[in-house]
């Protein structure tokens, strides 16, 4: 039996279910990217607001590329799905009822998606489509004109495929029909994610029509957000546990994440917004300091542990936490090489670092190092390289950052420390493979990978100190392996 309106009453009484009248919930937000994170984060905030504060803000859930099954499953279960919070020894479950509709561009047609996005009631289009969904270049924070999806959308603007293309077309239709604009809110892990979204949307709009671009610039808001909740991809074990939580009822759309959740939002909305603050979000004028803190301390240390952990054979983050040298190195990275670069004020960064390490220790999570390691070419810049630039400018040490970057180079070289082949998943995988295959396993490979200027910019590949540090770390990883290299480094701290 599947989760549905009918089976809601059969759930164990500990499960939190919608107590509000779901028929009163209105589709006011279109969400692009109905993945694991959205379900356990933004959807939970909206559900709390509906359950406890009479909010009528609901969602149309959309997937443009991938995730067909989730959308189909969601339709079949009256748009209900469950979200579990998993701590070491305790699970709490709620059924979220704020999704009203669901569409997949390939199944339902892009016209239907644009149809919802151009309804007068739509106030917000929010996004969690991973970094690659923005079709941008991290080094310029602007659109990648070589991206095949962007080329498609330039040639076929009325039937777009990319996230920026869909937003531009929906806004064009709204302008043409005299409708109010919507706010575009990115909830992806990018620095100044609102700024990146604005850049790609405006760049694409300019290709079509300067007037449209001007209208967007004048009327649309692109608030930045800092989002945080660790939500690993669901495994068969997770699904089995969710079923148990639901008293034997199946929920293929169910997801589980850690109990912690945080959301800092730039308060810049042109057509209204839910009162997210009532569910614990912080609405602020400037998100940048918070984003920077989270991206460098959390995501930076995550990537550090992911590359060095994966190479050493640690499949999950909590396994890395059982190696005291990895813990020591990650803490040093956070406090000595990331915290020192930050602008955030009034936050106890030492306590923050310890709370992150505690969250990583959650043995319930089983967060795969492989998952965090993916898409490194789009993650390294904001997680590690910006901090390296700070240290190069200030003459301060960055040994852990150098080791993390070198570990990414070993990782994309495709073989772990036990000689197993690595499935390298990255939008630039082909280019990485070519660079790796055509170079010997020494400093030549480091230099070849540094030639990726869309990752490293023009500055880092010509900086002698940077090259020297990365090369030394790379050679140590090659000769001693990740565990021993981390051990030797951690001895200095
Ligand atoms: P997921 O793999 O479960 O979902 C990815 C979503 O992105 C799917 O809905 C898919 O349809 C969409 N997508 C992928 N490539 C796309 C493309 N080229 N164009 C359009 N849509 C595309 O991943 P998950 O866990 O939901 O994470 C998504 C993003 O959310 C992350 O990349 C990150 O930026 C952000 N995030 C995730 C957290 C987590 O712990 N999972 C926590 C904080 C932020
Ligand atoms: C992770 C993030 O997959 C990754 O790259 O670092 O998804 C991380 O779990 C979240 O940002 C936590 O909020």
Describe this structure as you would to a colleague.
- The structure is a single chain.
- With 493 residues, the chain is of the alpha/beta class.
- The chain has helices at 36-40, 42-53, 68-76, 105-108, 110-117, 148-155, 163-176, 193-208, 210-219, 236-245, 288-312, 317-320, 324-338, 349-360, 369-373, 376-394, 399-412, 429-437, 443-450, 453-456, 464-480, 482-490; strands at residues 26-32, 57-63, 81-86, 91-96, 99-104, 124-127, 136-137, 142-143, 183-186, 225-228, 255-257, 262-266, 282-284.
- Helix 16 runs antiparallel to helix 17.
- The relative contact order is 0.10.
- The structure holds 1,4-dihydronicotinamide adenine dinucleotide and D-mannonic acid (CS2).
- 1,4-dihydronicotinamide adenine dinucleotide binds at residues 33-38, 63-67, 128-133, 163, 188-189, 227-231.
Question: What does the secondary structure layout of this molecule look like, with pairings?
Answer:
Elements: E1 26-32, H1 36-40, H2 42-53, E2 57-63, H3 68-76, E3 81-86, E4 91-96, E5 99-104, H4 105-108, H5 110-117, E6 124-127, E7 136-137, E8 142-143, H6 148-155, H7 163-176, E9 183-186, H8 193-208, H9 210-219, E10 225-228, H10 236-245, E11 255-257, E12 262-266, E13 282-284, H11 288-312, H12 317-320, H13 324-338, H14 349-360, H15 369-373, H16 376-394, H17 399-412, H18 429-437, H19 443-450, H20 453-456, H21 464-480, H22 482-490
Parallel strand pairs: 1-2, 1-6, 2-5, 3-11, 6-9, 12-13
Antiparallel strand pairs: 3-4, 7-8, 10-12
The structure holds 1,4-dihydronicotinamide adenine dinucleotide and D-mannonic acid.
């Amino acid at each position: 039996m599947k989760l549905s309106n009918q089976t809601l009453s059969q759930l164990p009484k500990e499960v939190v279910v919608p107590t509000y009248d779901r028929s009163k919930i209105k589709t006011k937000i279109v969400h692009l990217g109905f993945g694991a994170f959205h379900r356990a984060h933004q959807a939970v905030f909206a559900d709390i607001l509906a359950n406890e504060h009479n909010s009528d803000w609901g969602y149309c859930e959309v997937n443009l590329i991938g995730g067909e099954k989730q959308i189909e499953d969601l339709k079949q279960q009256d748009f209900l799905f469950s979200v579990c919070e998993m701590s070491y020894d305790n699970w709490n479950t709620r059924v979220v009822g704020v999704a009203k509709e669901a569409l997949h561009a390939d199944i339902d047609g892009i016209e239907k998606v644009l149809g919802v996005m151009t309804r007068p009631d739509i106030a917000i289009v929010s996004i969690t489509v991973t970094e690659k969904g923005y079709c941008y270049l991290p080094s310029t924070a602007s659109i990648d004109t070589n991206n095949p999806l962007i080329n498609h959308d330039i040639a076929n603007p009325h039937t777009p495929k990319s996230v920026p293309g869909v937003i531009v077309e929906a806004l064009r239709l709204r302008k043409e029909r005299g409708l109010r604009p919507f706010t575009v809110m990115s909830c992806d892990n990018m620095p100044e994610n609102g700024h990146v979204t604005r850049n790609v949307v405006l760049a694409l709009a300019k290709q079509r029509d300067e007037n449209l671009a001007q209208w967007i610039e004048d009327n649309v808001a692109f608030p930045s957000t800092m989002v945080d909740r660790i939500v690993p991809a669901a495994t068969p074990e997770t699904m089995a546990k969710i079923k148990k939580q639901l008293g034997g009822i199946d929920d293929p759309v169910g997801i589980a994440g850690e109990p912690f959740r945080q959301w800092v939002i730039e308060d810049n909305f042109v057509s209204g917004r839910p009162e997210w603050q009532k569910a614990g979000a912080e609405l602020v004028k400037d998100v940048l300091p918070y984003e920077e803190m989270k991206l460098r301390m959390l995501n930076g240390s995550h990537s550090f542990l992911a590359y060095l952990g994966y190479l050493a054979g640690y499949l999950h983050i909590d396994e890395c936490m059982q190696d005291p040298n990895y813990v020591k190195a990650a803490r040093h990275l956070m406090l000595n090489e990331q915290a020192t670069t930050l602008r955030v004020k009034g936050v106890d960064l030492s306590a923050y670092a310890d709370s992150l390490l505690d969250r990583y220790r959650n043995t319930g999570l089983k967060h795969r190092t492989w998952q965090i390691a993916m898409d490194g070419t789009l993650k390294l810049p904001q997680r590690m390289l910006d901090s390296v630039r700070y240290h190069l400018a200030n003459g301060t040490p960055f040994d852990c950052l150098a080791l993390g970057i070198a570990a990414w180079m070993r990782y994309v070289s495709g073989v772990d420390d036990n000689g197993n082949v690595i499935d390298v998943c990255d939008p630039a995988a082909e280019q990485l493979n070519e660079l790796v295959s055509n170079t010997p396993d020494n400093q030549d490979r480091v230099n070849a990978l540094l030639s990726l200027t869309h990752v490293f910019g023009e500055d880092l590949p010509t900086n002698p100190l940077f090259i020297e540090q990365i090369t030394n770390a790379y050679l140590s990883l090659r000769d001693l392996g990740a565990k021993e290299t981390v051990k030797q480094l951690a001895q200095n701290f």
